[in-house]
Amino acid sequence: MHNVDSHFHWLPRSYFEELCKRTTFPRAERNGKGGYRYYRALDGKHIGNPWPEWFDLDKQFAYMESIGHEVDVVSSIGPYSVYFSEVPASEGAAAATQWNEEMAAAQRAYPGRFWGTAAMTLVDTATAVDLLEHAAKLGLKGVNLPSSIGTDPRIDAERLEPFYARAEELGLPLFLHPTDAMYSDTLSEDYGGALHATLGRVMEVSIAAMRLIFSGIMERHPRLTVVMSHTGGALPYQAGRLDKNGNGAKLPELPSTYLKRMYTDVVSPHALGIKFAMDFFGIDHIFYGTDYPCWEPLEAMRLFDEVGLDQEARSKVLGTNARRVLTLDQPALVGASG
Fold this sequence. Notes:
The chain is built from 13 helices and eleven strands. It has about 350 residues and is of the alpha/beta class. The longest helix has 21 residues, at about 90-110. The protein starts with a strand and ends in a 13-residue tail after the last helix. Residues about 330-338 have low confidence and may be disordered.
């Protein structure tokens, strides 16, 4: 059985071609090299640069095979998930629907090899719930939860309670990934962007996850599945501080109790960090991932091997956990309405 790469990025080119047609921000433009430049704002500070490897699944699979990796993949939007909540709800919903149908088409084209996750706009709650229903009907294996709604950090806003309740009912896991919308203003110009690239993204996803905990969302929705990227950000290493100083949230359990209900991947260029995340979350809550094409799969596997797991634990991380939690062997998600 193939391993499962649960942190993998494929972007439909047709979606970025639509972004190139926009005359206002956010928008994209072709870079003349088979990729795009993505602009969140006129100031040019918020720029993404997906290169050609992001857009060709055949070539992505061929590369994996050329280095000896036999993998099935779960595709994530990554930081581009913020777009759908930076435009009006109707426009975001139309773009998300296009994205989701592209993901479903790829699932049909690569059955058992590729699984897609849904785009979501959080600008309007009713629209978000409708998109959840549509994603479930399409058989997508999760939802990309941006760590901010544009530059609004309140993914825990009270109005979004029905969104989280329906995600729980449908059994749709939420993949929490930084959007680069929160701290790049203050950090991207320092040291050639090094502060943002090293710590800004880590803090963004960590704070977003704690909002889900401190708000009581994780308490009120005990079957809600949240998958954090990048070994859980800073949170495993600060869990004691969360419990010591988290009394203000008035939760019935310690904050770390809810954190340990979440899942995370092994995307970290640091074997000791990977091991610590495994020890904290427990081996049953860890997914393998490479962040390809943002990171080199051979290096990701080298660091994973360095942790030195026994065969049972290794099998869980490399595939069994993801197949179980994300129901990858089921053709559609349970609970989708007709």
